[in-house]
């Protein structure tokens, strides 16, 4: 490499002022772009470990944003109750994988379409994804896992619940006698019994699992993004 002490090194002339101004403007634009990209980067925090599976606050924020895993859509700080709910879902998903419950692509497509509709439509969801640097495949996968969670409840517990006709009759509202009302009552009884059985199963699953909560009792964390 040539250095100034070498006679053949080219002599540098002063740069034209318009070139300097243009370069400065380009550098300012580049700096602004970098700052914008940095701002778009998600600030995440690990909040739990279930066996070897880590749970980040962004996982919970995504579930709440999409209304999956039984979460209500919310932008409120994430607390211990939210973490415990997500940990339960991790245990459910691990068990569903162990017993071979899977989700068909068409089921994921249907659930994703429903989630998008709840969130205000495709354009609104795409703006939300882009504005928060959220990968669309990650969001779709969260919806797929929610379908898997629901299938676990249906196949592992609800499939074994058979309400008696007397119980169905007792569950009917006054004046309801038609078959449609009985079908609704039957479905409600099945779901209630299945959820009770799953809650009992979860009590045991929590005791058997190695679970570490990584935030202090009473602490809350601001989610890295809000719902659409």
CATH class: Mainly Alpha
- Quickly give the structural class: mainly alpha
Low-confidence stretches: 1-15, 18-28, 30-41
Number of domains: 1
Radius of gyration: 27 Å
Helix content: 55-70%
For CATH, the homologous superfamily is named as Porin chaperone SurA, peptide-binding domain
CATH architecture: Orthogonal Bundle
Mean pLDDT comes to 86
**Elements, N to C (H/E):** HEEHHHHHHHE
* Largest beta sheet: strand ordering: 2-1-3
**What is the first-to-last residue Cα distance?**
55 Å
CATH topology: Triger factor/SurA peptide-binding fold
Helical stretch tally? 8
> Got a strand count?
3
What sort of overall outline do the alpha carbons produce when their principal axes are compared? globular
Largest sheet: number of strands, sense, barrel closure: 3 strands, antiparallel
The portion of residues forming beta strands comes to 5-15%
């Amino acid at each position: 490499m040539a250095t100034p002490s070498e006679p053949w090194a080219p002599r540098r002339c002063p740069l034209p002022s318009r070139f300097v101004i243009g370069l400065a403007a380009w550098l300012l634009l580049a700096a602004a772009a970098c700052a914008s990209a940095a701002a778009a980067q998600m600030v995440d925090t690990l909040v739990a470990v279930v066996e070897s599976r880590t749970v980040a606050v962004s996982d919970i924020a995504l579930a709440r944003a999409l209304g999956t895993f039984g979460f209500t859509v919310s932008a409120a700080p994430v607390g211990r109750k939210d973490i415990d709910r997500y940990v339960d879902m991790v245990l459910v998903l691990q068990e569903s994988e162990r017993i071979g419950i899977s989700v068909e692509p068409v089921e994921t497509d249907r659930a994703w379409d429903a989630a998008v509709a709840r969130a205000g439509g495709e354009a609104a969801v795409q703006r939300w994804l882009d504005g928060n640097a959220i990968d669309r495949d990650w969001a779709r996968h969260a919806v797929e896992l929610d379908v898997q969670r629901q299938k676990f409840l249906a196949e592992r517990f609800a499939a074994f619940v058979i309400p008696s006709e007397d119980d169905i009759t007792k569950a009917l509202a006054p004046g309801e006698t038609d078959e449609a009302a009985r079908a609704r009552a039957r479905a409600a009884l099945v779901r209630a019994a299945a959820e009770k059985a799953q809650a009992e199963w979860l009590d045991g699953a929590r005791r058997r699992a190695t679970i570490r909560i990584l935030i202090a009792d009473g602490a809350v964390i601001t989610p890295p993004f809000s719902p659409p």
